[in-house]
Each structure stands twice: as structure tokens, then as C-alpha cells.
Specification:
disordered C terminus; 12 strands; Rossmann fold; alpha/beta; six-stranded parallel β-sheet; 404 residues; elongated; 16 helices
Length: 404
Amino acid sequence: MSADAFTRMKPNVLLLIGCFHIGGAETQLVQLGKLLLEDDRYNVRMACFETVGALYPEATRLFGAIPEFPLDSFYNRNMLAQTRRFSAYLREQQIDVIHTEGFYTNIFGMTGATLARTPARIAFRGETGELRTDAQKRVERFSYRLAHVVHANSEAVRRLLIEEGVNAKKIEVVYNGLDMARVSVPQGTRREDLIAALNLPSAPRRRFVTIVANMRHAVKDQATFLRAARRVRETVPDAAFILAGEGELMDSLRALAAELGLDGEAHFIGRCERVAELLALSEACVLSSKAEGFSNSILEYMAASRPVVATDVGGAHEVIVEGETGYLVPAGDDETMAARLIALLSDEERARQMGARGREIVEQKFSAAAQLANTESLYERVLARRTRAAAPNAAVSGAPREDV
């Protein structure tokens, strides 16, 4: 790799995503691409495994045609063929920085980028739960060896990576960011209009408690939210509950809601395109996950000035200030979750103050502008280090030799 590739006026960045279903990592990567394009300091491209999912139209609007490298296994000839295609694509496009979004893209992306001698290779880790088999952990560890940096989206993820044996010097924390406009509704919007927009019942009047989480993975644990909801209803009879998200677990969660006596009070609204309206209608918001990296939902709740009750997992405690912007509860503890929600619903002024303070924190630390600035700073540092490594008398070239 010539020194010219490192010093090009606008380095070329490739964002590698698995698919375009709505999820935390996928949403953040598409948002990051948009921010990078608007800032115009990098030439930005996106590639994927599958061109499916609700985020795909937005991605094609931003990036145009998105090359696809379809995989059906990591252990067959197609994997080898796609890796060669991908490596050739990286060389042809003169990619300087590759940034992946999760387990599968880490493995494929870091392997192909190492073969292509891509100057800056950035893998990503965004969750803390026990979601990997031992074999998967070994393979992912190998991908981290090939990376120059492992991007963690919280200090909690950083600590976990260190516990798993990744060299602390290789890990960089860049928090998720939020476009504040995403959760803003015009001033003067009437409650009746919000209810109509979300197709919710207008009578009798209800105070809504909301959770936004996909229903594809049991780790989101909406079951604990529903059990807490039953407890809340016993004390706050005008409370009702909104579950936004889609996935194959919806039917079983509906059945649980019915079993708990929440028919008519637990509203499953599917994938929500009108997040701003949903949160404006909500009195309090919940995260019930058993594991997370850094929750986008928490940022949205707080940016919308809503107090939060969240399980103390992943990076939740890095954004929620206990008793100031919301409450942290143990995972699976529906009794404590219910008690905190009852406290918020019983003191509307206190809840309003918590929500206002939460918005201030997101504006200060977790805005899209902060995400962009921190990501571009990361790219600059990695490229600068690789420039030094590519100097004529550098002791190391090619694949990284750092111990992890």
C-alpha cells in the first residue's frame, strides 16, 4: 500500500452491514453514513450481505446501489468466493477505512480487508450478553486480531472485551448518537392527533407507558415489562401500555398479555415509523432487556424528555442518572420495575423534571454531532497510525501483530 493512499485528500470509507432490518447497530450505521456524507470529509460507501429490511430504501437514497456479498455459511466455497470478491472490491475502490457493525460483518469484513491490505480496519462490538457460543467467541476473537481497532459503544462493552482478552489499547469507545429531530413533534400538537396517528383508542383516557424494542430476540424481555404492567395496573388503573416493535415473538407476547389480564390495555403497534408521536404521548418509557451494549431506545426516550425505567444492563448506567433522569432496576425484576413506574405516574411534576434533565444530557453527550465528531476523530487516529506503520523503514507491514 503506497503512502499516497494514506494521504489522499478525502479518504475512502466503507461501512459494512449485514442487512437492513431495524436494529440498534443497523440503525446507527445507516445514521453514521448519513452524517459522514453530509460532513463531506470522507468518500463513503456501504456494502452488505443482504439488501432486505426497512432501512434499505433510506440506505439506497444515501448511497445509491449497494453491493451485496451474500453468505449462507462461513464454512463453504461460497464464503471463500465472496471473501475474494469483497477483497477485490476493497482494492478496486481503494478503501482506506472499513467499519463493520457486528459479529458476522466483523468476521467477513476483517478477513477480506486484511487480504486487501485495507489501511484502517475497525470492528464493532455493541452488546454485553452471553450471545455467543464458545466457537463463535473464538472466531470473533480472531476477527479482533485482524482489526486495528475494536469500536465499543459503551464502557460496559469495553470492560467485557478486556475480560475476554482483547488488548485494552486496541479498544476505542464511541457512543451511539441521536438526531434530536427524530423525536420532536411540532409545538401545539394535540393529544387527540397523536392518538389518531398511532391508531390507539381515544377513550377512556389513559396514561401510556411505552417500550420500544424488537420482538425478534428474547433478550429484550418484554415479558418482564408485561408482568410489571400488571402490577402497575393494580395501583394506577388509568395506566395503559404500548409495545412498539415487530418480530416472531409478538404472538407469544400477546398471549402472555392476555394471560395477565391486560387485554385492551397492552397495545402492540408493530414497527413504529412515528417515534416522535409515540414518545410525546407517553408518560414514562421502559427498557426491559436482559443484556445490551448501549441502547438507542434509552437515548430516544430521554431526548423526548421522558423519564426512563431501565434494566441495569450494558451501558444503561452510563446515560441514566439514577433518581435524576430515571431509574435503574435489576434485569428480570418486574416488582421493582413496577414500583418505579408507579412512583413516576404518581408524581407527574417529578417525572417532568426527570424528562427535562434527560434531554439535556442527550444534547450534551449523545447527539448525532458528538457521534460524528468522535467517529471522525477515531478514523483520523487510526489512519495516522497506519501511515506511520507504512513508512519505508517501518518494522511492521501487512496484517497487525498486536497481541489481543
